[in-house]
Amino acid sequence: MNPKLQKVLSEIDKTKNKIAAQQTRLRELEQQKTELENTEIVGMVRGLDVDPEELAAFIKAFRTSQAGTPDFMESEGTNHENVEYETE
Length: 88
What we know:
single chain, mainly alpha, 66% helix, 0% strand, DUF4315 family protein, coiled coil, DUF4315
C-alpha cells in the first residue's frame, strides 16, 4: 500500500478515536451538569418547607397562569400544561 495513503488512514483512525473519547467525555460532563442542577433544584425546593401537595398545586397554578411568566417560558411551541407530577 502507498505509504502516504497508509499515513492518512492511520491519522483518520487516530482522529476517530480522539473524537469518540471526546464524545464520551462530553456525555459524562453533561450528566454531571444535570446532576448538579438537580441537586441545586432539590435544595431550593426543600428550602421552601412545603409539603409535596402544596408544591404540586403551586407548580400547576404557575404553569396555567400567564401573569408574570418569564419570556423564555412563553416561546412558541412550548406546552407545559400536559406535564404530570407525582406526589406521595
